[in-house]
Design brief:
By secondary structure, the protein is α/β, with parallel strands linked by helices. It has helices at about 5-20, 35-45, 65-75, 90-100, 120-130, 145-165, 180-185, 195-200, 230-245, 250-275, 285-315, and strands spanning about 20-30, 55-60, 80-85, 100-110, 135-140, 175-180, 205-210, 325-330, 330-335.
Length: about 350
């Protein structure tokens, strides 16, 4: 028999969500973007006039006057999260999602290269066509050709082929989600580049739409070609989560048996040489090759197991991967808990 108290509790939670949740939360991560804050906030407010929205700005360890500019231009729809240090964009996004109250969540860069005017159309598409995620595709990208565009095209192609998720532009921050998908992304480290893959692992329905892109006017880009190796490292992890997270033995077992088979063949060959009177010692190149091969396999395996351990530790104990210094709603400091108010109500 169904517990009436449980039904009542569920109805109260649903009523709370209907009356006190915003329609849309726009989560924006910023670091040293003091000159962009005012035009960014004006652009979001102008684009979302017909939507019940909030702006959740997360300061990821800025050392300039970003905080002062946010508090100067904040209004009653602005929530400002000041992290204690620079944790990285993925973790800052997680903090913004945690402190948001919207039924739908949009991610937006703080560098003014994404255009907030694309958000209403993406939100309408998500609701009208019943998608879980609508991802932006920077069709006419305004970035440096050799340092940004070419590495990005190579990375996007590689990610599509290895994960099987056919998103054109993994580097575009502008995306709109249903809340339940965004909450379960569990972003940390540098995994924000693989948000569509993480959403797909949850079974999310994903589509993409062309969005506008502008050249950076103020501030300096935090991206560079030096991130290529990080992308490759994260890609190995994401492919593992995408294909083998529920059946890791299919990966490690297959590799192990292949490695064992090759080892047996090599040793049988060496044994045959030894029996026939040949000297099998003193081959440094073979030994060096084996060291590099076995060392690479061990390092990749240890890296994946370590990531699983960290993920299990964080998620099983509900620990946060970030620390909040202060939280402001409008321009007033509030308790840095997750009790953000909507229209003056808890």
């Amino acid at each position: 028999m169904v517990n009436p108290e449980l039904i009542l509790s569920s109805k109260l939670c649903l009523t709370f969500e209907l009356y006190f949740m915003r329609e849309l939360s726009v989560v924006i991560t910023v670091m040293n973007e003091e000159e962009n804050i005012n035009p960014l906030l004006e652009g979001v407010r102008s684009a979302l006039q017909e939507i019940d929205y909030e702006i959740v700005l997360v300061d990821d360890g800025s050392t300039d006057r970003t905080k002062q500019q946010v508090l100067k231009w904040a209004d009653e729809r602005t929530v400002f999260i000041e992290l204690r240090k620079n944790y990285g964009q993925s973790t800052a996004m997680t903090a913004g999602i945690d402190y948001s109250t919207g039924r739908y969540i949009a991610l937006l860069d703080g560098d003014m290269q994404n255009d907030p005017s694309d958000i209403p159309g993406m939100l309408n598409m998500l609701k009208r066509e019943d998608w879980d995620v609508v991802a932006g595709n920077r069709k006419n990208r305004k970035d440096e050709f050799f340092l940004r565009k070419i590495p990005s095209k190579i990375a996007n192609s590689l990610i599509r082929q290895m994960t099987g998720v056919p998103v054109k532009d993994y580097g575009c921050t502008l995306k709109v989600f249903r809340r339940e998908i965004a909450e379960d992304l569990n972003l940390y480290g540098e995994l924000h580049r693989f948000i569509p893959v993480l959403a797909k692992i949850q079974g999310a329905k994903i589509t993409q739409v062309d969005v506008k892109h502008h050249p950076r006017i103020f501030g300096k880009s935090k991206y560079g070609i030096n991130r290529t190796l990080r992308v490759l490292s994260d890609l190995i992890l994401i492919v593992f989560f995408r294909r083998y997270i529920q059946k890791p033995m299919h990966l490690f077992g297959n590799i192990g048996f292949i490695s064992l088979g090759v080892g047996v063949i090599i040793n049988l060959y060496l044994l045959a040489l030894k029996i026939s009177g040949h000297d099998i010692w003193g081959k440094p190149l073979l030994i060096l090759g084996l060291i590099f091969l076995l060392g690479g396999i061990q390092l990749i395996t240890i890296g994946i197991l370590a990531e699983i351990s960290v993920r299990t530790y964080v998620e099983s104990q509900n620990k946060k991967t970030y620390r909040v210094r202060k939280v402001y709603q409008s321009r007033q400091e509030v308790n840095p808990s997750l009790e953000i108010t909507v229209n003056g109500e808890l």
